[in-house]
Write a structure and sequence with these properties.
- 31% of the residues lie in helices and 26% in strands.
- It is an alpha/beta fold.
- It has one domain: P-loop containing nucleotide triphosphate hydrolases (Rossmann fold, 3-Layer(aba) Sandwich), CATH 3.40.50.
- Strands 6-7-8-3-9-10 form a six-stranded mixed β-sheet, with helices on both faces. A four-stranded antiparallel β-sheet has the order 2-1-4-5, with helices on one face.
- Helix 3 packs parallel to helix 6.
- The two termini are 33 Å apart.
């Protein structure tokens, strides 16, 4: 579904992604792990077209999107929830969710699918409240809900547990697992919280100094001692 081949990215003279290659199949959850500063967020931004790449190739559903704009990638079914959520603070929850339909403008009505509120009931209760008035955990649920409004084939999440209370982390874990189990969406999860990643990962990729240091199946994470890549 998503194929990344020999991807390289530079911040000025700093070589931040080094010959990165991997594949993500349809269905399931792939955890992208590594310490801070190893290139995880940079990689997601390159995949979404937010940052340019120096060389290499990105293919999505057999289409070369290496040079495609972000909105083109979104229209093809790629959704990205950035670190920090970036919801619209002055818009209501309902208005925030509706912005997620921009990639499919003219192809569907303006109704919010019931499954969004089934996954995140708090959003239904607060649909007329401004996004900036929500707690951090509620904003994270809103950001994920907004991305799901795009009906994505690939959902990329950048540290969805950061700064979130444990009860909402469990809610987010439940939603990610349910989506992965459906089999019609692939999830790429950037995470530093090892136990959260291990609970969800069908596959894992470890980045170290901008390179793929290790890969494997989720049930091999303990045997492969993946935790050592996250230790300070």
């Amino acid at each position: 579904m998503l194929i990344v081949e020999h991807l390289n990215h530079y911040y000025g003279g700093s070589h931040s992604l080094r010959d990165v290659s991997f594949e993500i199949p349809m269905g399931g959850c792939t955890a992208l792990l590594g310490r801070n500063g190893m290139g995880k967020s940079t990689l997601l931004k390159c995949l979404m077209g937010v940052l340019p790449t120096r060389s290499g190739a990105i293919r999505f559903n057999d289409r070369d999107i290496t040079d495609s704009a972000s909105h083109v990638r979104a229209g093809l079914g790629m959704a990205y929830v950035p670190q920090g959520r970036e919801i619209f603070a002055r818009l209501t929850v309902e208005e925030n969710l509706l912005t997620g339909m921009a990639a499919h403008r003219g192809k569907s009505g303006r109704a919010i699918p019931g499954e969004i509120f089934e996954m995140f009931p708090v959003l239904k209760d607060m649909r007329q409240r401004r996004g900036g008035d929500l707690s951090g955990g509620q904003q994270q649920q809103l950001a994920i809900g907004r991305a799901l409004m795009m009906r994505p084939r690939l959902l990329m999440l950048d540290e969805p547990t950061e700064g979130i209370q444990p009860s909402i982390i469990k809610d987010i874990e439940r939603v990610i697992r349910a989506l992965a189990d459906r089999g019609d969406i692939a999830i790429l999860l950037v995470e530093q919280y090892y136990d959260f990643a291990k609970a969800l990962a069908d596959r894992y990729i470890v980045l170290a100094r901008g390179e793929v240091a290790q890969t494997g199946s989720g049930d091999e994470m303990e045997a492969d001692n993946v935790r050592r890549f996250l230790a300070v």
